[in-house]
Each structure stands twice: as structure tokens, then as C-alpha cells.
Inverse folding.
């Protein structure tokens, strides 16, 4: 009952904040939800790898960046829309993810956690610097008509395209839940995540499951890279911040808690949008993210220590 | 590589490292301006690599080297521009400033472990950058601060300063290796619970390590701004200052003083050459080195060489004993 009561309090708190924002600054609500969608969508595949392979992938955002570059040049060459390129890019990225897993991650599964951390950090650098080497640090952008779609409600006029990221986040969260609970592979993955040795004893191929989950995660973040390209300019360092943001959202939500990521992203998106709505605070809006990380990680670690 | 030749090569590299103090002492007399500036850059990264390793000995990976280095650059610039300190004192002030901030943050973040510690150090460097970026006229905003009067431009005094910085780092590191710090940090790394129950004041030792390394990193930043003359949010906090020292220490061999020194010697020279050849993306080499070292040589060159030497010795002993058997 204690847990239920806490949930009720949070719901009530969320409702109050939501209504207050709606009355006071409705635009904050719209933009906050939109950016929360992108944060959550990128963070969910990272949570998948952390929950099942138990690897913190510090090259997560860089995989998204590589996918965005692949989409940009593929789409420009074939003169197609990024959304048409999305599926092939996701497939190619998951093959790439599989290769990276076989060559590097697999060899470090038994290493100390810190070695794994430095390994994926190095992988991220290798990815972003390879792109830098080939395409220089110049930024590229696609100009598409449909991203400027807007809607008008009452006196407010706002862009609605970014809601695709919200849809993507919700789809990912639902899809992953279905995958993990309804499919054979998903159930196996969940078992491996809980106890790799036990899973191996009952006959699950742990190595194959890890490879599949890692490839799936890279494929998903690759698909997001294609979507990312429709709205944003890309350059070699564009993925880095998303690695950090994703990790933080996962850490805030707690390992294995995908719904938690949605809520954490929402809180972050709204806080940033609120800061952005004040002219004097706009420059400081990027710091709120780091303060939230700092605070939640501290609270979490203190809680864990007590437990 | 055969065992014998690897030992010989290792001996050569480490003999070079041992001759380094002598060599660096006579360098200004024999070298031109380019080797001198190359040496300065190598010394800077060497000091950062050694200090990163000093904290790593407690088992905590910091991704925040660039944070304290950048704080040092700004600290020195602010001390000179806003408080009128002479350059040498401003370097000391930069170190103290970085140490004070480390002390403040240390009370909070040194309670974190493993991945949480690493991520928070990364976030901390970002927080420093954003604060200095938005600091208005006092910190110069996005353009940063420009020092009008540097310590004599192009003179060898900059070289001696950089050498002094590295000497300080190496000195502190060998103090860590020879004093109680070594046992405390190693115990924390190997088994924190056991260390705690045998009466080691974990937090105290971690705080000392964190503050000392941040002090040196801040001073290195203060020294470096004397040759750059500019502190800006993007350049001073560039990820290079985290990435390069990390790769150097890993390649040379962590948990030692000699490892990071050798790594910085090798990669520092390579870095300068690559920077000229590849203006974009020369850092890819560092990413690949980090990955390869972690996968195939987690103890680095030094660890590899120690093991090769040991194997050789035991093989020789086996040979000697064989006829008697």
C-alpha cells in the first residue's frame, strides 16, 4: 500500500504541475513534451542494453550520429526521404552493432566494469572521430517541408512535427514491453538479464542473446538517427550529449524501468522548456539537465546505501 | 614480437624515460623552437595523465580532467585580469582555486562509486563550462578572456614552467606510491568493504587524492594559459584534455608513475605529428588505442613489459635448474 500511496502523490503532483503550466504557459507544456519525446526515445535502447547485457554503452549517441550521417548521404544520393531510408538504415546499423559486439564488447564481458566503461568511451571517440576524419567538422542539414507543420489552438500557434518523437518514444516503450513479455527471444533476453548463469543452465544461448540485444539497440537508435536528421543539423559531436542524457535518464529511472524513463524525460523536457521561456534564464537552461543528474544520482546512491 | 626483442624494446623505452630528467634539462640548450613547443605540449599531457592515474589507483575513473584544467586556465586569467596578480602567483592561485572547488564537490561526489562517479565527473566539467560561458563580463562570456601580458613570449621560461608542472605531478605521484596513500588507495580499489573494516578512513584518502590531483590539474591549466594567452569555454574545456591523458595513461600502463609518463612520451609526439597531417579527426587514433589496449593489453606497455621480463627470468631459472634434475 505504501508504494501505491507514493504513486498517488506523484500523480497528484504531476496533475497540479500540468494544469498550472496549461493555465500559465501552455507553450512550455507543448515544447517540453516534444523534447521529452526525443530524450526518451534515445534513452530507451540504451536502457535495453544496460538492463540485459549489463554494459553502459558510452558510444550510444555516437551510433545515432553515424546513422544520421548514413541517412543523410544515402537519402541525398538516392533522392529519397529520410523516412524511406529509415528501415534500411536501421538494418545496416544493427548489422554494424552486431559486428561491434563480436569484435569488442564480447571480449570485455568478463572485464571489470570500469574497463567496459573506458572501452565504450573509446568506441564513441573512434566513431565520432572517424566521421570527423571523413566528413570534417562541417555540419549538414536536410531541409524538408513537412517539419514546419504547425497547428493553431486559440491564440497559440506552434510546430507539431516534433510530436513524432513522442510517438516514437511511446511506440518504443510499448514495443519493447511486448517483445520482452510475449516473444520467445524477448523472454530469453529478460531471463539472461536477470541471471545469465541460470539462463545458460536452462539452455538459453547467452552469447547469442547478448549479440541480438546489442544489435537491436543499435538498430533502434539507428532508426532514431534517421528521424533526428529530419529536424536537426548533424556534425561529428552531435551524438555525445545524447549519450550522456540517455545515461542520466536511465540512472534516474533505475535499471529496468522503462516507464520511469518516460517520466524522467518528461520532467527534464518540461524543466528545460520552462527555463527557455524566460529570456534571462535561457542561457542557463542547459545547466538544469546537469543539476538534475547531480541531484538524482546523489539521492539514488544515498538511498541504495541505506537499503 | 619475440620475448627477447620485446624485453629489449621495453628496456630501451624505459631507459629513455629514466634519462628524461637529464634530457629535458639540456633540451633548451640544443633544441630549436619547434621541439621546445612540442616538449611543452608533451609535458602538459604527461602531467594530466599522471594525475588522472593517481585518482584511478583508488578504482575511480574520472572523466572530468578537462573540467579542472579549464578551471585552472580561467582561474589564472581571472587572477591576473581582475585581481592584478603577477603570472607566477596566478598559476598558484589557479591551482588553489581548482583544489577549493574539488574540495567542495568532493564532499558530495566522492560518496559515489563506479559508473555514477564517472558520469558525475563528466557532468561536473560541463557545469563548469556552462557557468563560465554565462558568467557575463567577469568571465568574458562565449569569447572568453584574453591575457594582455604573458610571461615572455617564446622564451624558454614557458618550457621550465611546463617542466615544473610535470615534475610536480611525478613528485606527487611517487609520494602516493611510497607513502600510506598507496596502501589506502589500493585497498579501496581491491575491496572497499574490507578496507573500511580494517580501519582505513576511505573518504579521507579519496578526498586527499581528489584535491591533490585537481590542484595539479588546475596549475597545469594556469601554466598552459601563459603560452596560449586565451581562455574560452569551448577550447579550455575541450574533451581532448580528458581523452588524451586517458589514452596515454592506458597505453603506458595504469596504476604506476612510469606508465603514464611513457604513454605520454609516445602518444604526445604522435599526436603532434598527426595534428599536422590530419587537421580533422586525428583523434580517431586515440579512440582506437583505448579500445585495443583495453581489449588486448589491459595493463598497458609497462604491465606487458614487467610480465615479459618475469617470464624470461623464470624461463632462465628453469633452464639453469634443468641439468641438475
Amino acid at each position: 500500500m505504501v508504494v501505491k500511496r507514493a504513486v498517488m502523490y506523484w500523480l497528484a503532483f504531476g496533475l497540479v504541475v500540468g494544469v498550472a503550466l496549461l493555465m500559465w504557459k501552455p507553450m512550455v507544456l507543448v515544447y517540453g513534451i516534444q523534447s521529452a519525446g526525443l530524450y526518451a526515445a534515445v534513452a530507451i535502447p540504451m536502457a535495453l542494453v544496460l538492463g540485459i547485457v549489463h554494459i553502459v554503452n558510452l558510444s550510444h549517441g555516437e551510433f545515432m550520429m553515424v546513422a544520421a550521417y548514413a541517412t543523410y548521404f544515402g537519402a541525398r544520393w538516392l533522392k529519397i526521404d529520410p523516412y524511406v531510408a529509415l528501415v534500411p538504415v536501421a538494418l545496416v546499423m544493427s548489422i554494424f552493432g552486431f559486428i561491434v559486439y563480436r569484435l569488442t564488447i564480447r571480449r570485455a564481458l568478463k572485464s571489470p566494469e570500469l574497463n567496459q566503461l573506458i572501452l565504450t568511451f573509446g568506441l564513441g571517440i573512434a566513431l565520432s572521430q572517424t566521421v570527423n576524419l571523413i566528413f570534417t567538422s562541417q555540419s549538414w542539414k536536410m531541409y524538408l517541408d513537412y517539419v514546419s507543420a504547425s497547428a493553431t489552438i486559440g491564440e497559440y500557434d506552434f510546430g507539431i512535427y516534433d510530436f513524432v518523437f513522442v510517438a516514437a518514444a511511446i511506440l518504443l516503450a510499448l514495443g519493447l514491453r511486448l517483445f520482452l513479455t510475449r516473444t520467445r527471444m524477448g523472454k530469453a533476453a529478460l531471463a539472461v538479464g536477470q541471471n545469465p548463469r541460470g539462463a545458460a543452465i536452462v539452455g538459453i544461448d547467452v552469447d547469442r542473446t547478448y549479440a541480438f540485444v546489442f544489435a537491436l539497440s543499435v538498430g533502434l537508435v539507428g532508426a532514431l538517427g534517421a528521424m533526428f536528421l529530419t529536424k536537426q543539423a548533424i556534425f561529428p559531436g552531435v551524438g555525445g550529449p545524447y549519450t550522456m542524457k540517455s545515461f542520466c535518464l536511465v540512472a534516474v529511472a533505475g535499471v529496468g524501468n522503462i516507464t520511469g524513463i518516460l517520466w524522467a524525460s518528461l520532467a527534464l523536457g518540461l524543466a528545460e522548456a520552462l527555463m527557455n521561456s524566460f529570456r534571462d534564464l535561457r542561457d542557463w537552461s542547459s545547466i538544469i539537465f546537469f543539476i538534475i543528474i547531480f541531484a538524482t544520482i546523489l539521492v539514488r546512491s544515498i538511498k541504495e546505501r541505506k537499503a | 614480437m619475440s620475448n627477447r626483442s620485446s624485453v629489449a624494446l621495453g628496456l630501451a623505452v624505459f631507459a629513455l624515460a629514466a634519462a628524461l630528467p637529464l634530457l629535458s634539462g639540456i633540451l633548451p640548450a640544443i633544441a630549436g623552437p619547434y621541439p621546445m613547443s612540442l616538449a611543452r605540449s608533451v609535458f602538459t599531457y604527461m602531467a594530466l595523465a599522471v594525475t588522472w592515474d593517481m585518482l584511478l589507483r583508488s578504482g575511480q575513473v574520472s572523466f572530468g580532467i578537462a573540467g579542472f584544467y579549464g578551471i585552472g586556465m580561467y582561474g589564472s586569467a581571472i587572477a591576473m585580469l581582475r585581481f592584478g596578480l603577477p603570472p607566477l602567483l596566478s598559476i598558484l592561485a589557479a591551482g588553489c582555486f581548482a583544489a577549493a572547488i574539488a574540495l567542495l564537490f568532493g564532499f558530495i561526489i566522492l560518496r559515489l562509486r563506479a559508473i555514477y562517479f564517472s558520469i558525475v565527473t563528466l557532468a561536473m566539467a560541463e557545469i563548469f563550462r556552462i557557468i563560465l560561458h554565462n558568467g557575463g563580463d567577469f568571465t568574458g562570456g562565449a569569447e572568453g578572456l584574453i591575457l594582455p601580458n604573458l610571461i615572455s613570449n617564446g622564451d624558454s621560461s614557458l618550457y621550465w614552467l611546463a617542466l615544473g608542472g610535470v615534475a610536480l605531478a611525478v613528485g606527487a605521484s611517487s609520494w602516493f606510491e611510497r607513502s600510506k596513500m598507496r596502501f589506502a588507495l589500493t585497498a579501496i580499489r581491491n575491496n572497499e568493504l574490507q578496507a573500511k573494516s580494517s580501519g582505513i578512513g576511505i573518504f579521507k584518502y579519496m578526498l586527499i587524492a581528489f584535491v591533490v590531483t585537481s590542484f595539479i590539474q588546475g596549475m597545469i591549466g594556469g601554466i598552459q594559459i601563459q603560452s596560449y594567452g586565451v581562455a574560452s569555454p569551448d577550447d579550455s574545456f575541450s574533451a581532448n584534455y580528458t581523452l588524451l591523458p586517458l589514452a596515454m595513461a592506458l597505453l603506458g600502463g595504469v596504476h604506476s608513475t612510469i606508465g603514464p609518463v611513457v604513454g605520454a612520451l609516445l602518444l604526445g609526439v604522435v599526436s603532434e605529428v598527426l595534428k599536422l597531417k590530419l587537421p580533422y579527426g586525428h583523434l580517431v587514433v586515440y579512440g582506437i588505442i583505448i579500445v585495443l589496449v583495453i581489449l588486448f593489453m589491459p595493463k598497458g606497455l609497462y604491465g606487458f613489459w614487467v610480465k615479459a621480463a618475469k617470464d624470461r627470468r623464470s624461463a632462465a631459472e628453469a633452464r639453469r635448474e634443468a641439468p641438475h634434475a
Observations:
- The CA atoms of residues 3 and 312 of chain B lie 7 Å apart.
- Chain B has one domain: 3-313.
- The longest strand of chain B covers residues 145-146.
- Chain B has a mean pLDDT of 81.
